[in-house]
Design a protein that fits this description.
single chain, 24% strand, Rossmann fold, alpha/beta, binds L-homoserine, elongated, Dihydrodipicolinate Reductase, domain 2, eleven-stranded mixed beta sheet, 38% helix, six-stranded parallel beta sheet, 16 helices
Length: 444
């Protein structure tokens, strides 16, 4: 059978990885796919760099629309990123009857509904394994391997940059801003790291996993997003003393009231495998009613790990593109006619209705009655305390200090109730600094 013809839009880190892995493993991939997969055209604004990667045998152009207009091309691989031109090109490729493979989580988390609808109308596939957790085949696992299950929850370390920063903060006892500068100097964090450190990248990925897990439309606008910029080395140290590590988790959970979809730093018991995922690695834990808890671990970014996911999608398309569209795996795992309506019986819950436990760090004057007053306010709000840790004032503020840190772990409570109690506690004259609140996830 004639090799399937692929056009790449963008040949940076992931594009060159895709080209190189396809070239290196082409025989094995052909044996698996049942036909060859050939990159025959590449578009990149930097045509000289593109030529240096693909050589003379592949046509290189500066205009992505030339790839889309080429009737020989079966599949367009979008590796440009972002919501701008990438969205227009993906929709144009679909309109031209091309299958699309993309690593663009931002695009799908925000515009996925429109893109999947356009693809269904045209009978083409939009595949996106590389968009979540890089080389880890988590889309495949959720969408196919675990299809028998009612998924209960998914929790993942799905941003390598922030996991690297948190690992360094823990190892070296340094504060966030110091480690971020070092990470940028070493090339682990981008010059503009906003999407990573503010949790936006993780929220894009969590949004996609939530849709696949629960059969709801992509709703990035309903995700709660909190990054790691406010974390202090002290929080990591205190968490450690209490038997926890702090990780930036993307969490989506089924509850009686609806779906939780949130990204924030979380205390995770140190004994959980996921708490021990260090550096830039990614890991995702999925809990299903039949299978129990499963864990997926690997590289969430990088040239060849991400290429591994892109090529897996190309192989799926090579195998499936002749199949009747009704018999293909639906893009969001559930048949589109069976997706719950946004805001319908499976709404994404507002953060105030999320139930979780908390770590609180409260800087107080070290005087009689302070702890009693604070625990009284928590009790009034119906919040039950799990553990309290109070450091020596000298240890916290230096010799002769009259300030100390109170660390309180709570049992599960509604976020809305916690917000109210914290506002009252913050108003006490003996509370001397903004309270640090970090959610705690037992993941059991
Ligand atoms: N910037 C992401 C990370 C990789 O740090 O994990 C691409 O999503």
């Amino acid at each position: 059978m004639k090799p399937i013809q692929v056009g790449l839009l963008g040949i940076g880190t992931v594009g060159s990885g895709t080209f190189n892995v396809l070239a290196r493993n082409q025989d094995e991939i052909r044996r698996r796919a049942g036909r060859g997969i050939e990159i025959s055209m590449v578009a990149d604004l930097d045509t000289a760099r593109a030529k240096s990667v693909v050589g003379d045998k592949v046509k290189v152009v500066g205009d992505a629309r030339e790839v889309i207009a080429n009737p020989e091309i079966d599949v367009v691989v979008e590796l440009i990123g972002g919501y701008g031109i990438a969205k227009a090109l993906v929709l144009e490729a679909i309109a031209a009857g091309k299958h699309v493979v993309t690593a663009n989580k931002a695009l799908l988390a925000v515009h996925g509904t429109e893109i999947f609808k356009a693809a269904a109308e045209k009978g083409v596939i939009v595949a996106y394994e590389a968009a979540v957790a890089g080389g880890i085949p988590i889309i495949k696992a959720l969408r196919e391997g675990l299809t028998a299950n009612q998924i209960q929850w998914v929790a993942g370390i799905i941003n390598g940059t922030t996991n690297f920063i948190l690992s360094e903060m823990r190892d070296k006892g340094l504060d966030f801003s110091v480690v971020l500068k070092e990470a940028q100097r070493l090339g682990y964090a981008e010059a503009d790291p906003t999407f990573d450190i503010e949790g936006v990248d993780a929220a894009h990925k969590a949004t996609l996993m939530s849709s696949i897990a629960f059969g709801i439309p992509v709703q990035f606008d309903k995700a709660y997003v909190e990054g790691i910029t406010k974390l202090a080395a002290a929080d990591i140290k205190y968490a450690e003393q209490l038997g926890y590590r702090i990780k930036l988790l993307g969490i989506t959970k089924r509850t009686d009231k609806g779906i939780e979809l949130r990204v924030h730093p979380s205390l995770v018991p140190s004994k959980r495998l996921i708490a021990n995922v260090e550096g830039a690695m990614n890991a995702v834990v999925v809990n299903g009613d039949a299978v129990g808890t499963t864990l997926y671990y690997g590289k969430g970014a990088g040239s060849e790990p991400t290429a591994s996911a892109v090529i897996a999608d190309l192989v799926d398309i090579a195998r499936l593109h002749d199949a009747d569209p009704a018999h293909r795996v639906p893009p969001l795992a559930f048949q589109s006619s069976s997706l719950a309506a946004a805001g319908g019986e499976l709404p994404v819950l507002p953060m105030a209705d999320v139930v979780t436990s908390y770590y609180l760090r409260i800087r107080v004057s070290d005087e009689a009655g302070v702890l009693a007053k604070i625990t009284g306010l928590l009790a009034n709000a119906g919040i039950s305390i799990d553990a309290v840790l109070q450091r020596e004032a000298d240890e916290v503020g230096g010799e002769g200090s009259t300030q100390t840190d109170l660390i309180i772990l709570t049992h599960d409570t509604r976020e809305g109730d916690m917000d109210k109690a914290l506002a009252e506690i913050q108003g006490l004259p003996t509370v001397l600094a903004p309270i640090n609140r970090i959610r705690k996830e037992e993941l059991n």
